[in-house]
Amino acid sequence: MPLLDVRGLKAYFETRDGVVRAVDGVDFSLGEGESLGLAGESGCGKTTAALSIMRLLPQNGRIVEGQINYAGYDLTQMTQNQIRGIRWRHISIIFQGAMNALNPVKRVGAQIAEPIILHEKVDEEAANKRVGELLELVGIHKDRAADYPHEFSGGMRQRVMIAMALACNPRIVIADEPVTALDVMIQAQILELLERLKRELGLSMILISHDLSVMAETCDSMAIMYAGKIVETGSVREVFKDANHPYTKDLIAAFPDIEGPDVLPGYIPGLLPSLIDPPKGCRFHPRCKRSWERCVEEEPHLESVGDGHRSACHLNTGGGPGP
Ligand code: SF4
After folding, report:
1. What distance in Å separates the CA atoms of residue 216 and residue 252, rounded to the nearest whole number?
2. Is any ligand 1 atom within 6 A of the Cβ of residue 273?
3. Within-domain flag for 323
4. Domain-embedded: residue 178
């Protein structure tokens, strides 16, 4: 039994221009102690999927279909009161750009203590002790709890956000673009930290990133999202070694390979389609170099292309143009 099992999830946003189908029928699961990467360009639905799990969609967003099963409960059916018992204590999230969201006029320790006092119902002394432990856990001396956010570098602020996410001992941590705003050296340190915490605390993790190299370093399995759908999924090793979907191949080609031949990385022509009125058939067809008539008419579904490896492309069921 997976720890978290997402089935047929659809999450839409009402906007003045129409209904944005940000997540449009995705399935994925996360095992105990596993890390799953959700990858794809910005706007593919990764963050909406994460916010749906946390039941933190903005006011104009709603889960319209599907199940999010965690420990025998369907989170989509819980009231806000019930979900408060799950959020932070069982599943927590490091929000995108969160390191810049620390309150500048409040000491860092007091900000970490807040969720502990609120959710664990402990007194201030016990919360402060826990804050010290958490800071040490993420590599910051406990005395720094008395400092303000401006006294921390970007990397240290991100460590503080990780400490906050761990404050109530969750089983699952969702990290949304945890290293995007950091320089390369600090990125490596934060990824190493996440990897160590996962190992030492037995955490399960969902890592969201547009950067495939982040997945390669930290995840066991990955799901590639395009325009609200998962188009390829499998172990990280399998997807990198033997990418099947043309979108995955383009994404991989768009990243520089420092060990490979001295060539410029590729790029994916065109833009993501509107999710108010997505293209019929395969949503990637307007940008796909291999599309043909069938791709315009018929939607491909995830099919097995290897051991635990699935891809949604008509090329796998025969036909189509040459390479
Ligand atoms: Fe390209 Fe067609 Fe495959 Fe879609 S189904 S990725 S358009 S070849």
Report:
1. 11
2. no
3. no
4. yes
Judgement on whether residues 112 and 150 belong to the same structural domain of the protein: yes
C-beta separation of 247 from 232 below 8 A: yes
| Mutational pocket test of ligand 1: of 247, 282, 310, the residue with most ligand atoms within 8 Å of the beta carbon | 282
User: Which residues have a Cβ under 8 Å from the Cβ of 159 and sit 6 or more positions away?
Assistant: 138, 139, 140, 190, 193
Write down the pLDDT at residue 263.
Answer: 64
Ligand 1 atom nearest to CA at 289: 1
Average pLDDT over residues 31-40: 96
Yes or no: say if 233 and 247 are a contact pair by the CB < 8 Å rule.
Answer: no
Domain with 53 in it: what CATH number? 3.40.50.300
In short, whether 246's Cβ falls inside 6 Å of ligand 1 is: yes
What is the total count of domains within the chain?
2
Pick from 72, 74, 60, 68: which is nearest to 26 by CA?
68
Among 169, 192, 212, the domain-final residue is 169
The CA distance from 147 to 110, in Å, is 10
Look at residue 285 in the predicted model and tell me its pLDDT.
96
Task: Provide the pairing of β-strand 229-235 with 221-226.
Answer: antiparallel
What phi and psi values does residue 311 have, to the nearest 5 degrees? -145, 150
Does ligand 1 have an atom closer than 6 angstroms to the CB of 21? no
pLDDT digits (tens, 9 = 90+) for 260-312: 666 666 778 888 999 999 999 999 999 999 999 999 999 999 999 999 999 99
Mean residue pLDDT of the chain comes to 92
Rounded CA separation 304/298 (Å): 18
Q: Are 144 and 135 in contact (CB under 8 A)?
A: yes
Tokens of 213: 């190299």
**The pLDDT value given to residue 129:** 95
Bridge partners for 88 per DSSP: none
Q: Which atom of ligand 1 is nearest to the CA of 285?
A: 7
Domain carrying residue 118: 99-169
239: closest CA among 257, 256, 251? 251
